[in-house]
Structures are given as structure tokens and as C-alpha cells.
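Posted in: Structural Biology > Protein-Ligand Complexes

Title: Requesting predicted complex, flavin mononucleotide in pocket

I'd be grateful if someone could produce the C-alpha cells for the following input. Sequence and ligand are given below.
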Amino acid sequence: MTKIAIITGSSRTGRVTDRVSKWVANNAKQFADATILDLQDYPIPFLDEAVSPRFNPNRTPDEATAKWLKDLADYDAYVIVTPEYNRSMPGVLKNAVDVIGHELDDKPVALIGHGSTGGAQAVATLRLALPGIGAVALPQAVFLTQPVADIIDEDGNLSDELKKQTFGPETNLEMQLQTLVRYAKALKNL
Ligand SMILES: Cc1cc2nc3c(=O)[nH]c(=O)nc-3n(C[C@H](O)[C@H](O)[C@H](O)COP(=O)(O)O)c2cc1C
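-- Reply #1 --
Done. Output follows.
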């Protein structure tokens, strides 16, 4: 079974991104072995390495970064759930990407954005960053434009009203996850 890591891209107190991650995890269970990696559990310091992580075979990362890299390496595919902060991904998420060396090489990443414009610009900044670490972003993405707290409860259940929509978030997510698994299988041949 494809192993998927769902990355919770916000670590702030009172965040709602964890709800979106749970929603993704609940849905992903039908296709994959899905685990949430929450940036709140990885207090990664700002990148402070003399050599770029991808060009340094002798890295000596601090404990939190080392754990992040070790855990990340264990998956075939990823979902990054990102809010939009000032038209971009959160700084904590960008730093978590910047410390990555080769852990995501040739692996697919599905992008889920939320914010008043669905996190579209945060997703766009991830599309710029991910090729730098050798990862492959899926062509499509899922955008949640409504306030997350209004549509997803603390256990990751989407509201019944949205669940019923034929081309609503649930359908989009399911299609995205199915595509992610297909990409993971195809890219494994690399
Ligand atoms: C510092 C900050 C900046 C934000 N900037 C934007 C923005 O530029 N565009 C947008 O659509 N929403 C913006 N928002 C709203 C958040 O993207 C939205 O509320 C999101 O669901 C918050 O996720 P979180 O609670 O997990 O941090 C911002 C929120 C914060 C805290």
C-alpha cells in the first residue's frame, strides 16, 4: 500500500490547518496508508547550514531537523496542507521545505490550500519551491475558500452540506488522492 505523509503546514496556536489534515487523513484511508506529520511536533530552527542541504553529503542537523528528515524519508508520496499567510505559504512551512535534502526526490506532492482565496497564492509559492527539492507537484490542487472552522469539525469531518455537493471539496480531494497514488506508483519506477 502506498505510504502517504500529510504535512500540517501551520504550527500557530489556534490554527485550523490540523482540521484539514484530519479531513485528508480520513479520506486517504480508503486508498493508502496515511500518516499526519504535524509541524507543531517538529520545532525546526531556521536553516543555519554553511552548505545547501542538497549539496552537503556530511550534514549534521540538529535533533528536530534530523527527526523531520528521517520521518519524511519514509513515505512514497505527500500531501501538504497550507494556509495562506500574506499571499504566501507560512514561514514555518518554507523553513521545513528549505531543510530538506534528497528525502522527496522524484516523489509526488498533492497540495491543499485554504484561506479567503482558497490558499491559491500559498499553493503557488509551493509550486515554485518544490522543484528545488526534487519533488513533483501534481497538476491539480484542492482549494478551500470557506473558513475552515465553519466547514470541518475538530475530528476532520466535512459538513454534510458540502459532502453532498457533486463537485465539492470531498470529490476534489478524493480525485486528488487517487491521482497522488497513481503518481507514486509511476514515479517509483524512477
Ligand atoms: C498572518 C496571517 C496572514 C494571512 N494572510 C492571508 C492572505 O494573504 N490571504 C488569505 O486568503 N488568507 C490569509 N490569512 C487567513 C488564513 O489563511 C486562514 O484563516 C487560514 O485558514 C488559517 O490557517 P491556520 O489557522 O491553520 O493558520 C492570513 C492569516 C494569518 C494568521
